[in-house]
Write a structure and sequence with these properties.
By secondary structure, this protein is mostly helical. It contains four helices and no strands.
Length: about 140
């Protein structure tokens, strides 16, 4: 009975052209094929270069945003201690989660400040992702 199932699967796979193949079907137009960075006109690994002034301004703006988030986390902790007992645990857990995400973002900001010119663009992208996640968590926590 097992061999019947195996034969059926083999026939099914044989009838599907290109099934399991990593190659693009030959009848697709160039517009429907996925485009990598090389196809779009920019070389792979090319990143926008930033001037030292732009770097400092970005780092300062991000540090100020992290300070504002820290103040909101502190307000959330106060709200947890003075608020209703039913919400205390939830608010404390949210504050702790936000604090960990904030510390991780601060660590990325510190690494960004020490990064070379070539690595700065990638470090910035990592920090942007961490900040976006932190902002979403802040919205979710209601701060």
């Amino acid at each position: 009975m097992k061999w019947l199932g195996i034969l059926f699967m083999a026939a099914l796979l044989a009838s599907a052209p290109g099934y399991g193949s990593a190659q693009q079907p030959k009848d697709t137009s160039p517009a429907t094929r996925p485009q990598g960075p090389e196809v779009k006109g920019e070389a792979a690994g090319t990143a926008k270069s930033f001037t030292p002034a732009e770097r400092k301004a970005y780092e300062k703006k991000t540090a100020e945003e992290l300070d504002a988030i820290q103040q909101r986390i502190a307000e959330l902790r106060v709200k947890a201690t003075t608020g209703p007992a039913q919400q205390k645990r939830t608010l404390i857990l949210a504050a702790n989660n936000l604090q960990m995400q904030k510390v991780a973002a601060e660590n990325r900001l510190t690494a960004l400040g020490k990064a070379s010119e070539t690595a700065w663009g990638q470090q910035k992208a990592d920090l942007d992702k961490a900040m976006q996640d932190l902002r979403k968590s802040c919205e979710k926590a209601g701060i």
